[in-house]
Amino acid sequence: MRDVVVIGAGLAGLAAAIKAADAGLSVTLITKGVGGIQLGTGTVDILGYGPDPVEAP
Length: 57
Hints:
The protein has helices spanning 11-22, 36-39; strands at residues 4-7, 27-30. With 57 residues, the protein is α+β, with helices and mostly antiparallel strands. The protein has a domain at 1-35. A two-stranded parallel ribbon has the order 1-2. β1, α1 (11-22) and β2 form a beta-alpha-beta unit. It is flat, with a radius of gyration of 12 Å. One of its GO terms (molecular function) is oxidoreductase activity.
């Protein structure tokens, strides 16, 4: 059983899934199609704005 289920892989869904996973929760991300990030590959850096630096995604 998962702690969190996120519906949608747009920016908000991905950000929510990442925050939940960083908090140690088990996360399932459900999306239809390719998601919002696929349309702008390399143009949106959602991992780069947290309080701690990210070494690698």
